[in-house]
Amino acid sequence: MKRIVFLGPPGAGKGTQAAELARRLGIPHLSTGDLLRAAVAAKTPLGLEAEGHMTAGRLVPDSLVLQILRERLKDPDARAGFLLDGFPRTLPQAEALAAVSPIDRVVLFEIPEKTLVERLTQRWTCPKCGTAYNLATRPPRRAGLCDLDGTELQQRSDDREEAVRTRFRVYQEQTHPLVAHYRALGLLRSVDARGPMEEVRERVASAVG
Fold this sequence. Notes:
By secondary structure, this protein is an alpha/beta fold. The protein has a domain at about 1-30 and about 75-110 and about 170-209: Rossmann fold, CATH 3.40.50. It has 8 helices and 7 strands, in the order βαβαααβαβαββαβα. The protein has helices spanning about 15-25, 30-40, 45-55, 60-70, 90-100, 115-120, 160-185, 195-209, and strands spanning about 1-5, 30, 80-85, 105-110, 125, 130-135, 190. Helix 2 packs across helix 3 (about 45-55) and helix 2 (about 30-40) packs across helix 4 (about 60-70). The chain is globular.
């Protein structure tokens, strides 16, 4: 069984690598955001409870997120394992997760702040179809316009430099104790998240084993 957690700052490439690895291993790729949205859309009792918090602009409590995760892990496709992307983010969340399911491997995506800022501030998105571009590595064919539908590209407010640096600092503050926790348990493997996607994929595969 493969029960895997990906850790790393926003923009480190966790989501892209998680989707690829999950397909290869035949396990579900789970993110708490997707889990919450699915529960709300299905109008499950837990989803309705989560929707109440979200509608009011409150964070969904960890206890509720973990209940939704526990229910999701009962589905047949999770029998062989799962890949959690971006959760847990704090030590209390990690301790609570351990009560829901044991974890076999934690992969830490390491990337310098300078590289992260360069990567994220170059990211622009089509507001109509959601296609993402990177002005440095994957620019649109026509400057400022989506290749698919010609819509003017937009930059997310949290991809501007100061916001990126703030997100990185918050991540470092929250996640440092979590990294130490999983390292002490012998579960942590670090990968360099810089470089071509294919090279990072090989590093991740090696870390998972």
